[in-house]
Design goal:
Largest sheet: 6 strands, mixed
Low-confidence stretches: none
Strand order of the largest sheet: 6-7-8-3-9-10
Shape: globular
Mean pLDDT: 89
Structural class: alpha/beta
Order of helices and strands: EEEHEEEHHHEHEHEEH
Number of helices: 7
Amino acid sequence: MIKVTNLNQSFGKKMVLDSITIEIGNNEICALVGRNGAGKSTFINSLLGLLPVKQGTIEINGIEVTKKNQVWKKTIAYLPEKFMLYPMLTGLENLTFFAEAVFKKANLGRMEQVLKSVSLWDDRDVQVKSYSKGMLQRLGLAITLYQDSGILILDEPTSGIDPMGRKEILDVLGSLNDKTILLSSHHLDEIRQVCTHVAYLNNGKMEKYTVDEFLQTHNLGGIDA
């Protein structure tokens, strides 16, 4: 569970996040939605401890996010919009590198499992410089899933991917029934397809809806974007 209470973040005189209070429950897939510049990145960076909390509290599975307490990091994994991979290494070698960076020794069985889950096992020995953008995103997702964290934060995981690539990513996300996911997205169709809730950020404030409530409240029921 992610629990945020009275979170304030500002840059100079500009209040970016204004008294944000929200809970994202276990096994929910919550879309983080807002216009460009609304503060979505600030919110994500706050959750990840990359941006110090100025006021308020953030708890990850009941553990407060602070510099002194690093235990919460074991329960959360993050996939940035642009995942930096090593183009001359194969998919399996990239996964091995990142797995060993966290766990010192990679588990081949676990690597096979996550690569199969994103349909990349057959391409594991191909250099990633030959991967399509969709394959690169799926590899990034596999690296994120390897850690087997209960909470995933995904920043625009389908950005710039063709329709087939988007479908492949969404199919994987839809299969993660045991994960709590915060998914930053601009696409209403993928929000409808995989999300249970929407966290809408506007003018520094955040409101949480079910997907149907969000579409009805904002008159988006008939719009595909």
